[in-house]
Amino acid sequence: MVRAYYGSAIALSVRDGADTSATFSNVIQGMIHLNIAVKLDPTNETARLLRAYLCFRLPETMFHLTKVAIEDFEFLRDAYRAKSDGAVHASFVRVLKDLASAYSRVGRDDEAQLIRKELEGIEHGVI
Asked: What is the CATH number of the domain that holds 106?
């Protein structure tokens, strides 16, 4: 957990910085720590969430990490589905929305549409 939070903090520490080389360097260092955290504990939802959103927010044309975000979002979707806890509902919906966007970003429009249909079902209380 500590490594995951540390990696996330490193990557975000230069978020609004003007020095692009420092930004790039910190993002890479942060990703290294997040990847190690996920490798050490692949079922850790927090580590997966932190890595997913870092990868999802980075420009695909520069970093090519949307597929990693999709992998983590899919893991989180399955983990949240397994819980009947109402507390994860908002997180589940957010993950589904971002998973659909990530699928669209990499041209997997059929999968994005399936997720959007699932979201419609959730919004109408079908699921």
From this structure: 1.25.40.10
